[in-house]
Each structure stands twice: as C-alpha cells, then as structure tokens.
User: What shape does this take?
Amino acid sequence: MHVPFCSIVPPYLLRRLARQDAPGFSSAAAAARKALGHVESFHVARAQQVPAVPPGVLPAKPGPVNRTIYDAHSTETLPGDVARKEGGAATQDAATDEAYDGLGHTHRLYADAFGRDSIDGLGLHLNATVHFGRLYDNAFWNGSQMVFGDGDGEVFERFTKSVSVIGHELAHGVTQFSAGLAYRNQAGALNESMSDVFGALVEQYVKNQSTSEASWLIGEGLFTPQVQGRALRSMKAPGTAYDDDVLGKDPQPDSMDSYVRTAADNGGVHINSGIPNRAFYLVAEAVGGYAWDCPGRIWYEALTSGSLPPAATFTVFARATARAATELYGAGSAEHDAVRQAWETVKVKV
Assistant: This one.
C-alpha cells in the first residue's frame, strides 16, 4: 500500500491564493506557492509501503494514549525538538498545547466510541510537529506523524486552532492502516471524506454536540477575519464554506449531478469528497442524537471491515455502509433506511 501525503488545504485553494498580487496578501501568496510546491513534490516522491493491519489482530481493549509534540522552530526538519511528552505540563505555547490536546481528543474518540487502540489499532505512539516551516500554509499526515504550519497571518491562522483539522489528518492514518484507500479519483475522495467525517466527530465528541448542535464545518477558525468564509469545507452544505474575493467560491459539489471530472488534485480528491460528506451528514440528520453513535459506527465498520478494495468507488463504499447498517441494526431498520436514502439523495447508487 502506498502511503500518500495528505494535507488539509486543497491544492485548488492554494493555486488561487498563489496567483494573488494584491499588496495586502503578498505574504499569503508567497506562503501558498511554497505550500503548493511542497504538496506537489510529495505526491511525486511518496513510495513508502506500509501494510494494513488486519481487523482480526487488533487488541480487544484500547490502551492509554502516548503523545509527543515536537517543535521544528520554523524549519522543515522533522521531527524537530521535543516540546511536550505524554503527561508533561502545558508549555504555554499555543500550537504545542493545542496539538497535544487534539491528539488526545482524537485517541479518546476512537477508544471510547469504536474500541480502537490509537490510529493503527495497535497503540501507535502519536507524534506531531508544530511550527513547521516559515508561515507554512498547511497541516499534513506524512504516513507516520502529524505536521502543522503556523499559517501566513493574512489568510490562514495556525493550523492547530481547529480540532477538526487534527482529527482529519489523524484519520488519514486510520484509513492507511485499515482500508488503504488509494489517494486518487473516487477512492481518494473517499479517503478525504473519511477524514472529514472523523475530524467532525472528534470535534463534536469533545464538545458533546448532538447532530443538530454541530456546525459540520471542517477547519472552522483557520481563516483570518480578512476572509469571507467560515471554514475549508461544509459537510452539511458542500459548496458554501467560503465565498471570498481572494479565495473564490467553495467549489465542492453536493451530489453526483455536479461531480467534477479533473486530473488536478489526484483526480479531484478534495473537491468530490463533498458528495460522500453530505451523505454522512444526511444519515446523521435522519437518525439524530450523537453522530458518533449510529452513523459513526456504520462508517467506521464499513471503513475497517477489510472488504474495501484500494480503488473503491462511491458506489462500492455506499454498499459497504448499507451492509454495515444491516449487520449493526437489521435490514429494514430506520438506520438502514437512512443510509440508503442518504446515498440516493446525493445520486450514488447503492
């Protein structure tokens, strides 16, 4: 299984920002060009092989979280110097402490809601590096650890500010160690969507929010006040997260009627993820309560069952969620009907 370089900011947004020549966004444009080059170079270079962990070998009971946060001191050398280890006191550095807390919240969701022992299911030590690069406009999972930039200060704030971003990137590790979905075309969009789903669930879990109380935004709080936008993506209403003179309008489709066919961004993995994202939201809306309970369990079982091929399409995954709903709640149950109706609404065949 190839390990992809998975970043939170879509390349299409970075490209738009990189072209800006307005004086008020000079730092942001330079930072976007840097981040975009980084994304493209990693997509070309990644070739590491990491085996998936078969479901049958996972421990019956999750162990305690084990975290280490490193500080890159504005360099691009990983992992950097140790800034805070498991059990250590708060450092008063916002990025370090936010990363530490976010990793803990993510570990707790998987342990409490799904009985999973860390990202790989086998108690993987969670490592993260903060203050990566100078004015770095991204956060990413590189196959073994989390990395956070500080943002450019004109468009983006520091990337540890949003717990949904931390949960999103760590979920790429869960996908890597379970389904191994390819990072291209519909499988890649599913890969991104899984991270949005579990990133949203981490945020909702730590805030104890019900489906109706949650914002369903990914990356809320990342934009500076200069940006006309709430977040990077909206799961509830894909295509509405931002509408800004500099960044343009959120291009995500909310159904297959608007599916974007493109060679960019590995076949549109960040754009088309809006379709399965909305399907998950619709299930959560129909079922009600806490989204990590029923819909989260269905999506988790579909992702980690071992039945998904690396090149899974939306239809393949939709059918996997329907099977999971049947196994968990029964054929003809309200939960099963909600799953089928959600996929029908976004025009994906089940």
